[in-house]
Task: inverse folding
């Protein structure tokens, strides 16, 4: 995956939770990612998982260009070293890694966290990147053992995963440990501190303030 711990997104946290669960089950587990902060160690053990971070030579949008990431990950993708691989997408390097797995006889799965989407009006270059990203993703995932996502609705209705056969797709729910619900007393305190009514409908949404998270849809729907 591109980003690793301590970077915090739904993708990173979900991927690390899955890796830590594998390690806890007694399966030696490695994570390869880009060193998004130069002060982070190149190799570190967290939650029983060995994290390999590779320095980038440049970046584009939220992605990176890292020769070391490609080279070291390809070195790790060898039958004598691993028996399977999981790629967390979006991942620009997926076609390279998937091809290596197929040639070396390594089964691989893809955990898809979100399509590549640019906001409306981003221009023809952005649309071309979206089209190329989808085409390369489909060509790589079509030969994977399975494609996973965090919920079945996204697998069936998301633009990219909906193009794949249903029997090929699987849901992995609750990969994160959710906190216990607040007690009535804590809930009352929370709303009183913010001068909010205790009854009536309530909507909570969390995420980066970007177009693909759908905040614009919530704001348009609010007056209705």
Result:
């Amino acid at each position: 995956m591109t980003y690793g711990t301590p970077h915090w997104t739904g993708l990173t946290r979900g991927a690390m939770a899955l890796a830590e669960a594998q390690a806890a089950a007694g399966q030696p587990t490695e994570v390869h990612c880009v060193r998004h902060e130069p002060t982070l160690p190149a190799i570190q053990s967290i939650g029983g998982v060995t994290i390999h971070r590779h320095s980038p030579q440049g970046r584009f949008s939220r992605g990176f260009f890292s020769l070391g990431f490609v080279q070291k990950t390809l070195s790790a993708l060898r039958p004598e070293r691993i028996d399977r691989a999981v790629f967390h997408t979006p991942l620009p390097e997926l076609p390279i890694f998937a091809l290596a797995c197929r040639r070396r006889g390594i089964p691989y799965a893809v955990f898809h966290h979100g399509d590549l989407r640019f906001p409306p009006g981003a221009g023809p270059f952005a649309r071309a990147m979206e089209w190329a990203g989808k085409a390369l993703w489909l060509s790589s995932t079509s030969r994977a053992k399975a494609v996973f996502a965090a919920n079945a609705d996204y697998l069936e209705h998301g633009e990219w995963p909906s193009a794949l056969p249903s029997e090929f797709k699987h849901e992995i729910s609750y990969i994160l440990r959710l906190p216990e619900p607040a007690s009535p007393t804590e809930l009352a305190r929370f709303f009183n501190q913010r001068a909010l009514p205790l009854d009536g409908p309530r909507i909570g949404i969390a995420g980066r303030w970007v177009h693909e998270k759908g905040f614009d849809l919530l704001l348009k729907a609010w007056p209705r």
